[in-house]
Structure formats: C-alpha cells, structure tokens
Design a protein that fits this description.
The chain is mostly helical and 69 residues long. It has three helices and no strands.
Length: 69
C-alpha cells in the first residue's frame, strides 16, 4: 500500500478483507488457506501503519522487521 494513503483508509480496507474472508473463500478456492494467524507469513516489507493497527487490535504479533517505520 502506498505511503500516501491514510492510516484510516488502510485500516478500513484491511478490516473489510478480514471481516469478509468467508466470502473470499466462497469465491476462490485459493483463499481457503488464508487466515489471520498466518497473515504476516512471508511478507518482505514493513506493514502500512493502518494495517499494523488492525493486526495489533486482533492480537497478531508483528515481527520487528514488519513494524512500520
């Protein structure tokens, strides 16, 4: 996500994706393994502050290398 997108906007986008995950599971089989507890596995860049806020609220531990600058 671009740095110039507001924290609130990215928070709401991230929240919408995770709160509607069951709909994604129905749409495409490839999403069947997607889950919040595995959300950060394999990411190679720091999270946007809005996404980080959502994950923290959900109790997802954010590794230091993914902490927003």
């Amino acid at each position: 996500m671009r740095a110039d997108v507001s924290e609130d906007a990215v928070y709401e986008i991230t929240k919408a994706v995770w709160e509607n995950l069951s709909a994604l599971h129905e749409i495409h089989r490839a999403t069947s393994d997607v889950s919040l507890d595995k959300a950060l596995i394999g990411l190679g860049a720091p999270l946007h502050p809005g996404a980080a806020r959502y994950y923290r609220e959900q109790g997802v531990e954010i590794p230091p290398e993914l902490t927003p600058p």
